Amino acid sequence: MPKATLTRRGRVVAAACVVGGLLALAAGGRALDAVVLPGVVALVAGYVQLARVDDPEMRRVPPPDGFVGERGEVRIELRPATAGASGTYLAAIADDTDDGLEGPDAPIRASIGEGPVTYRVRYLQRGERRLGPARVTATDVFGLFDREVVVDDVDAVTAYPACHPIPAEFRRELYADDAVGVSRRREEFDRLREYARGDALRDVHWPTTAKRDEIVVKEFAAETRRGRVSIGGATAGEREGADALASAAASLALALLDDGVPIDLTLPAGSVSVRPGPQGRRAVLELAAVTGPGGVAVDDADVAVIADADGARYRVGNRTVSVEDLRASGGDGEPGAEMSPETTSPAPTEPEVNWR
Fold first, then answer.
1. Which of 61, 131, 209, 239 is deepest in the core (most CB within 10 A)?
2. Distance (Å, rounded) from C-alpha 27 to C-alpha 21?
3. Is the pTM of this model over 0.70?
């Protein structure tokens, strides 16, 4: 158990008591009562208070997984590990986070034992991000002593890559041959259901959501008769290329799933075969969150995603279009994004990739 140590304020009070005691010896006993005794009482009381404080047990509730740029709330519950120990005391809590998260700039001041402590984090980098361990620095009521305890409790939260809309004409060209006779505009409403992580914001049914305490989304009639689209991606080895690959691959995969198209996604970190729905979206996002640089066999893929430090490109057959050009050509559902000589360029020389 760590020992209580004097704070800066405590050292000042202790020094004042020493000086006051010396002056009292020279000036008389009255000075001892007026200066020294209150300081000594405060020091003793502060030390005894911290001596009775037990090392805390900690329970951290991490925020939900989210996209890069989003924020989430972390909740920390601290309580004494031993029954009967002093359960309420002042403390400063510093919860360590890795470089992929942005947390508080300073420790959080709180009264331990009176309720949970919360703070917000911002997702800066994709991947599995770490929360903890936490440093709990208890102080006495006068602020004269403190005692630091490191609670070796670690949790994780997954940050998904940033995803962007994919123009409708580009998406439809990938499965148009298999979509004959199937509505391409998702107009056939089926039912309402509870929101699940990964559902598109455009599917939220706001009138029903406003009447309930939960988010409700629209679900459309099954469109899974459309053919499966395979997506494969690789990088030239740079970390920047891995981020661009994850964002481009996840954006296209989620857009196709929203259209009701099953997909096969293969990235350096692995592969998933999913159907439209919340579980499929989550599987795509989790794979994209952890994928790193590397190469995979994409010769047989319907869409190859090639990424390097300059960005990512989609390659379909013998045509290639950059992700940035595709985004600039039109938003979701807007015309003008169909791959054509006017919107694409001849396939550039691809970087050296170790295709497996």
1. 131
2. 10
3. yes
